[in-house]
Structure formats: structure tokens, C-alpha cells
Amino acid sequence: MAIADVSTYLHLSSADVEEIAYELDVIRRDIEESLGAEDAAYIRRVIHFQRALDVAARLMIAGSRSKTGWLVGTCALAYAKSIENMELGHNISHGQWDWMNDPEIHSTTWEWDMVGHSAQWRYSHNYRHHVFSNVLGMDDDIGYRLLRVTQDQPWRWAYLATPLRNLLLAATFEWGIGLHGIRSERERVDTPAAVAVEKRKFLGKIARQLSKDYVLLPALSLRRWRRTLAANITANVLRNLWVYVNIICGHIPDGAETFDPSVVKDETKGEWYLRQMLGTANFNASPLLAISGGHLCYQIEHHLFPDLPSNRLPQISVRVRELCEKYGLPYNTASLPRQYFRTQRIIHGLAFPDWLLSIGRPRRK
């Protein structure tokens, strides 16, 4: 649908839309002007904590002789990997900390601990997803080319396999991210030679990642290599599942709109802001849960200001929520279980042909 067709938008005048843009710009300016040493100290603390937890978890996995020790170590490793991927890799690659001018904590130099190549992901995510958020045919994150999440996507027989597809996507999410990035790069570059270069980068990253997780680190455990190998596999799967939950709960619940490609033609800044607000959703999370998910429990605020530091999103959310109340706009948030249930209801309901749909809710555009 077009932005002007969204029912929750109809009461706004053009002047209202531009005033919303102005007020959001004020929020951005206030945050940017207040960034400083405390924020820099925050991201450095997170890096040190994540690395220390990673080492401690691996020592526990390799050194403990009990199943309980292995389980605790594996869960700690999964948590450390989640922080590395989300609060660090995802957010640093967004340029949230580029203002520090620290070459080690910069979007152009950070490489995350997963099979996807950071540079390839930055184009597919920072540009295609965030600029064209929820625009059909332009944002590949709509269903990740595997899931049907709106009736505006034509139904195909393959969608009947949605339960299996959905489970495989969740368990192997890092591979989905990696393939997503290389696919976007193939579409972006314009010569076979450039495509070959990007393929080599991707394959090289896969080789390095698999060697580290499944060869080098188990080998360092000597006779206990099986414990380390099993822990690495389990931690990667747990990390993938948690990243999947974070992402889908921010983009697929009821109330998160999708849009027709015509929406981007002559789109004003205010309309772009509205599209981000109407196409995303939040969920409630404790600080420990929030940091492991890159603070994407504040997906609305992240989409409004993708390059502002994640530690400021809770503060920003208070002002964005007040803005939504002021202009009578929905602020889509709920508990994590509720948002997750709503996403799964949509994903599995839309696996069936439209004439069979009977999932007890209005047609999701």
C-alpha cells in the first residue's frame, strides 16, 4: 500500500507530517550533540566484557568434567556470540560509533564472528533494507525470499513448506545473512570480474570461520576436542535462533505495514520517517536481554536513527513514544512472547492460499 493509504496515517495533514520530521530531527540533533566520553566508554566496556566472557566460557567448556559445566559454558558462549554479532557487529557496522574516529571500532574495519562478510552485509542491510524498509520488491528482508509475510506477495506452492523453511532459517540464520549479502553484491556490481571478487571474499570468510569454530578451537582442546566442537555447534545454533527472534519480532508482527514501490517516488523526509515507524515494532526486554540482541527490542527507534548508538535507544524511545501519542500514531510494542506469537501466526497463516486464509485478523498489507 501507499503511505497515504495506511489508516493510522489518514488524520495527518502534510503540515503534520513535516512537523513530525522536524521533531524527529530535533531528537537526532540532541543525541548527536550529547555524544561523548561516556558513550565511548560504554562500547569499550561491552567489547572487553564480550571478549572476557568468550574466553571464560571456552575455558569452562574445555576444563569442566561435568555436564553441568559444559552446559553453563555453552550457554555463556552463546550469549557472548550474541553480543558480538548484535551489540557489536550489527551496530558498529551501522556506523553508530564512527564518530569516535577509532580505527578498531569503525564500520569500515570491523569484521564480525560469523560466516557472512561484514562489507557485503553493509550494502544489503544498511542501504537496501534501511533505505527501502518494507517496500515490496526493494527490501529483500521482507520474508528473506523464503517466507510469505503479506498477502501482497503472490502465493506459491513452495510456501506450504513454510514450517520447515522457517525452522531452518532460524537455526541457520548466519548463513541466511551471508547469502543475503553476497546476493546483493552480485546485483550491485556490474562486471563478471567484480562478481568473482565478491565470491572469493565470501568463500574466504566462510573458510576462515569454519576453520576457527570447527577445526582450530577443537584442536586446541586436545583430547577434549569433542566437547569443544559440540559446544561451538550448539552455541552457534542458539545464537542464530536468538538473532532470528530479534529480527522477526521487529518486522513481522501485526501492525507492521508493507508498502508498494510507488511509495518511494517523491517521498518526503517526513514520509520516510512515517514509513519506518509504521513498518517496525518493539518488544519489552530487560537490559541483559537487550544488549544480547543489539538493543533491537527498540526496532522503531533503530529504524528512525540507524546510525545513532544503541545505548541511547532506550532514552530515544521515551521521546518517540510521546511523539506518537501527540500525533495519534500507533507505537507497536508488546511483550516478547506476544510479538513472537504474532509473527508466527502471520508466517504460518500466509503459507496457505488466500482463499483458505482464516486466521482471525484483518488482511495484512
Short description:
The protein is mainly α and 365 residues long.
Structure description:
- The structure is a single chain.
- The protein is mainly alpha-helical and 365 residues long.
- It has one domain (3-356).
- The chain is built from 13 helices and two strands, in the order αααααααααβαααβα.
- It has helices spanning 14-34, 37-63, 67-93, 118-131, 162-171, 173-188, 192-220, 225-249, 269-278, 287-292, 299-304, 313-327, 336-349; strands at residues 282-283, 333-334.
- It has a two-stranded parallel ribbon.
- Helix 1 (14-34) runs antiparallel to helix 12 (313-327) and helix 2 runs antiparallel to helix 3.
- The longest helix has 29 residues, at 192-220.
- The protein starts with 13 loop residues before the first helix and ends in a 16-residue tail after the last helix.
- Mean pLDDT is 92; it is low at 359-365.
- This is Fatty acid desaturase family protein.
- InterPro entries: FA_desaturase_dom, Fatty_acid_desaturase.
CA radius of gyration is: 21 Å
Q: Ranges with pLDDT <50 over ≥5 residues?
A: 359-365
Helix percent reads 55-70%
Mean pLDDT over the residues: 92
Beta strands, count: 2
Strand content: under 5%
Shape label: globular
Whole-number tally of structural domains: 1
Q: Number of helix segments?
A: 13
Question: How is the largest sheet built, in terms of strand order?
Answer: 1-2
Oligomeric category: single chain
Helix and strand succession? HHHHHHHHHEHHHEH
Question: Termini distance?
Answer: 7 Å
Major beta-sheet overview? 2 strands, parallel
**Structural class by secondary-structure content:** mainly alpha
